[in-house]
Design goal:
The complex is a heterodimer of chains A (112) and B (114).
Chain A lengths: L3 E4 L2 E5 L4 E7 L4 E9 L6 E7 L4 E4 L2 E6 L4 E6 L8 E9 L5 E3 L3 E6 L1
Parallel strand pairs in A: 2-11
Antiparallel strand pairs in A: 1-3, 3-8, 4-5, 4-9, 6-7, 7-8, 9-10, 9-11
Chain B lengths: L4 E3 L2 E4 L5 E6 L6 E8 L3 E9 L2 E5 L6 E5 L5 E5 L8 E8 L9 E2 L3 E5 L1
Parallel strand pairs in B: 2-11
Antiparallel strand pairs in B: 1-3, 3-8, 4-5, 4-9, 5-6, 7-8, 9-10, 9-11
Chain lengths: 112, 114
């Protein structure tokens, strides 16, 4: 069964600090992996998408990494801001299908 | 370009009733997917429509159904509501059926079943 596991479940950091969120998956065959940011009360917004051949992709202060061999991805947030407080969801797409497998997300709280 | 819109934003129903949720995709987008989001299960895929045809279906009972119109607008229907159907229902659109296309999510419809 395809699964996406995220850790930690929740995280509190001080404004200005860095943090790293983890995503492990068992989806096979693999097509692509996305990280989404979901603010409270709103729909998810795509941050990055990575394919099998990519191992790093950045979007401003967000940097995603992918190790397709170990089936692990991470999302690194640099110099956190209060507006980074949100749920971060890892989503993996299976090759040949448009069905997505979602992780349960990491709830990040950036404290002043 | 307007984003994905969903109506209504909030809904309260009682057990046994049925409900219809509506989604208008971004103009030009032909693929619409529906998801259920609950605190315990996270986001779960319900189904995807492309050019009025259901292309994929998640593991949900037949009480959950949907359709897509020629203008790409989509509706989702849940019959015989149960307490466990209380959730945020999200709709997402993308321009084609290509899985590499970015999905754009709407704000969701918060359904509460009493």
């Amino acid at each position: 069964k395809n699964q996406v596991e995220q850790s930690p479940q929740s995280l509190i950091i001080l404004e200005g600090k860095n943090c790293t969120l983890q995503c492990n998956y068992t989806v096979s065959p693999f097509s692509n992996l996305r990280w989404y940011k979901q603010d409270t009360g709103r729909g998810p917004v795509s941050l990055t998408i990575m394919t099998f051949s990519e191992n790093t992709k950045s979007n401003g202060r967000y940097t995603a990494t992918l190790d397709a061999d170990t089936k692990q991805s991470s999302l690194h947030i640099t110099a956190s801001q209060l507006s980074d407080s949100a749920s971060y969801i890892c989503v993996v797409s299976e090759s040949g299908y448009s069905t997505l497998t979602f992780g349960k997300g990491t709830m990040l709280l950036v404290s002043p | 370009k307007a984003g994905v819109t969903q109506t209504p934003r909030y809904l309260i129903k009682t057990r046994g009733q049925q409900v219809t949720l509506s989604c208008s995709p971004i103009s030009g987008h032909r693929s619409v997917s529906w998801y259920q989001q609950t605190p315990g299960q996270g986001l779960q895929f319900l189904f995807e429509y492309f050019s009025e045809t259901q292309r994929n279906k998640g593991n949900f009972p037949g009480r959950f159904s949907g359709r897509q119109f020629s203008n790409s607008r989509s509706e989702m229907n849940v019959s015989t509501l149960e307490l466990g159907d209380s959730a945020l229902y999200l709709c997402a659109s993308r321009s084609s059926g290509n899985p590499f296309d970015t999905q754009y999510f709407g704000p969701g419809t918060r359904l509460t079943v009493l």
